[in-house]
Amino acid sequence: MSSLDLSHCQELDRQDPLAAVRDRFVLPEGVTYLVGNSLGAMSKDVPARVQEVVATEWGQGLVGSWNTAGWFDKPLTVGDRLAPLIGAGDGQVVVGDSTSINLYKAVGAALGMRPDRAVVLSEAGSFPTDLYMLQGMTAWTGRHRLKLMDADRGNLQQMLTPDVAVVVLSHVDYRTGELLDMQAITEQIHAAGALVVWDLCHSIGVVQMDLAGCDADFAIGCTYKYVNAGPGGPAFVYVAPRLQAEAQQPLSGWHGHKAPFAFVTDYEPGEGVSRFRISTPPIVSYAPLEVSLDMFAELDIAQVRSKSEGLTGLFIELVDQECGGFDLEVVTPRDADRRGSQVSLRHPRAYQVVRALMERGVHGDFRSPDVLRLGFAPLYLRFEDVWDSVVALRAVLEGEEWRSHPEPQLTAVT
Catalytic: which of 373, 376, 380, 394? Predict the structure, then answer.
C-alpha cells in the first residue's frame, strides 16, 4: 500500500491554516493551476476595484484624481505597502515600470557608485530579460563589460575580481527553482568591493525575505506571479537607505525630479527613493496589486512559506513514489531551505508532457530544452491538487499520451 495517498493529502488540507484563502480567487472548474510562477490567479475582488478606479476615480474624478485619489503618489504609497513582503521599510521601494526598466535603473545606479570598476557580473542561467538588458546597457555605455559566471554559480568567488562593479543574481533560479542564500552571497559580494542587485521575481510572495537584514543594495521584481497582480502588473525596485543619497539612476524622468511641478529646464533628482521614479504611473494596473496587498496584509508570510515548502515537498515525494521508471529527474533541490515555490522536472519530452497534462486539466509550463516547470502558489492550491497533478503525470507517462503532441515551437507562448 502506498505510504502517501489521497486521504493523506485531504487531511493536510483540513489542517491547513490558509485553506479558506483559496475561496478568494477565481479558479476555473476542472483546472489544477500550477503556473502561478508565471501568472498568478485573479482575486475575486479585482473586478470591483478596477471598476472603482475606472468608473469613479477616472470617470467622475477626472484629472483631479491625481490628487484626490492619490494617483501621483501611487509608486511610493504602494511601495510602502509592498515593502514588508521583501523585508524592507517605508521609503525604500518604488512600484512602477517593468522589471527590465527597474533592472536598468538599479544597475545604472550601481555602476555610477563604482566608477573605477567596469564589469557587470551575472549568471549564465539568468532569466533572458536580465541578460538582454545587461548586454544592451554595457554595449551602450561602451566602457563596461558583461561577464557571466557558470549557470550553477559555482565559480562566483573566482569571478569576483577587482574590476567587478555590480553582480546581478536571481534569488530563485527560474529554471530549477533553487533558492539562493541571500545573506551569505551578499556578504561575499560586498567583501569583494562590489554591489549586488537581487531579482526577486520568483520569490516575492512565497519566500520570507529580509533585504535590510541581509544588507542588500538593490532589488527588483515583478508582481504578477505569486503576488497575483495580473498581467502587466507594475514591477518594483528596492534601494537600501544607505545608498539613496548617492545613487543616481540613469533614466531621469520628470516624476523623479526634486520638484516635478516646477517645470524647470535642468534635472535635479528627488529625495530618497523617489528619484527612482520616471514618469506617469499606469494607474489602472495598480488596482489588482492593491487588492493583493490587502490580502497579504491579513496573512502571516511565515505560514505562506511553510505551506509552500509543504506543497513542493509533497509533490517531490509523490513523484518519487508514483512516477519512478519514467525517465523523470527532479531538478529542484530536495532541501526545503534551498528551493523556492516550484518544482522542475527534466524529461526528454518535457514540452509534449506539458501539453498532455493540460489536456487532463493540469496546467504547467515548459522551459527549453527539457524542463517541465510547475509552480505551487500557496494561497490557492490545495494538497489534494498536488495529488491530482501527480496522478495525471503518471497517466500521461504510463500511457505515453505525450506522443500525440508535436515538438515545441519556441516562438510561441507556452
Answer: 373
The per-residue pLDDT for 1 is 39
Task: Look at residue 402 in the predicted model and tell me its pLDDT.
Answer: 86
The pLDDT value recorded for residue 3 is 81
Among the listed residues 49, 225, 305, 355, the single catalytic one is 225
127 is catalytic: yes
Residue 382 appears among annotated catalytic residues: no
The reply to whether 74 belongs to the active site is no
**Active-site residue, from 80, 173, 199, 217:** 199
Q: Return the HEC string of the chain.
A: CCCCCHHHHHHHHHHCCCHHHHHHEECCCCCEECECCCCCCEECCHHHHHHHHHHHHHCCCHHHHHHHCCCCCHHHHHHHHHHHHHCCCCCCEEECCCHHHHHHHHHHHHHHHCCCCCEEEEECCCCHHHHHHHHHHHHHHCCCEEEEECCCCCCHHHHCCCCEEEEEEECECCCCCEECCHHHHHHHHHHCCCEEEEECCCCCCCCCCCCCCCCCCEEEECCCCCCCCCCCCCCEEEECHHHCCCCCCCCCCHHHECCHHHCCCCCCECCHHHHHCCCCCCHHHHHHHHHHHHHHHHCCHHHHHHHHHHHHHHHHHHHHHHCCCCCCEECCCCCHHHECCEEEEECCCHHHHHHHHHHCCEECEEECCCEEEEECCCCCCCHHHHHHHHHHHHHHHHCCHHHHCCCCCCCCCC
Annotated catalytic, 199?
A: yes
pLDDT (tens digit, 9 = 90+) per residue, 84-103? 999 999 999 999 999 999 99
At 270-304, the pLDDT tens digits run 999 999 999 999 999 999 999 999 999 999 999 99
User: Exactly one of 45, 127, 147, 320 is catalytic; which is it?
Assistant: 127
Q: Is 224 in the active site?
A: yes
